[in-house]
Amino acid sequence: MKYTQSRLQSIIFRTKNVLSPSFFLLLLLFLVVDIDDPNTQSIISTTLLLMFGIPALLTLWLVFFNSGKSRIDEYFVELTDREFRYGHLAGLDIIPWSEFKTYAIHGWFSKTITVYGAKKNIYFELRRFNKAQQTAIIKALDERVNQTP
């Protein structure tokens, strides 16, 4: 079974993970520096570009151009008969079920799940997926834990 992050989930997740911390850093920057200084204005404009511009461009590209047959699944979890697969923009992480040990959920607000394997671990934030997908992923992992000797 494959669980893919929807476009709306992607936008919400990016907004929470990129913009929220950025606003805090921007507020801190304005409190610490002298805004009237020309050097400071250059630093602020560069900071704004890095904090908001690049993530916004990536999100807009994904929204408008990531579609059709060449669509990239931004984030997904796939549970096959042979392996656990976690796909993300940077690549694909795989743990064969023969190497699967267990899993754990960490945190209370931003729940992170870690899937432990014999050779490597995979971790990701559960809130990348909707509640029904989260429940299904956890249920499938629970079944695998019960099958593991």
How would you characterize this protein structure?
The chain crosses the membrane at residues 44-65. It comes from Alteromonas gilva. Keywords: Membrane, Transmembrane, Transmembrane helix. This is PH domain-containing protein. There is one protein chain. The chain is an alpha+beta fold and 149 residues long. The protein folds into two domains: 2-70; 76-147, PH-domain like (Roll), CATH 2.30.29. It is 48% helix and 25% strand. It has three helices and seven strands; from the N terminus they run E-H-H-E-E-E-E-E-E-H. A hairpin with a 3-residue loop joins strand 2 and strand 3 (83-88). The longest helix has 28 residues, at 38-65. The two termini are 23 Å apart. The relative contact order is 0.13.
The residue fraction in helices comes out at 40-55%
The chain-level mean pLDDT equals: 82
Placed side by side, the strands forming the largest sheet appear as 1-2-3-4
Q: Per the principal axes of the C-alpha atoms, what is the gross shape?
A: elongated
Distance between the termini: 23 Å
- Low-pLDDT runs of 5+ residues are none
Total E-strand runs: 7
Strand content: 15-25%
Helix and strand run: EHHEEEEEEH
Structural class, judged by helices and strands? Answer: alpha+beta
Examine the coordinates and then state which fold CATH places here, giving the name of the CATH topology of the largest domain.
PH-domain like
Separate helix tally? 3
- CA-atom Rg in angstroms: 19 Å
CATH class placement of the largest domain: Mainly Beta
Largest sheet: 4 strands, antiparallel
> Into how many domains do the coordinates divide?
2
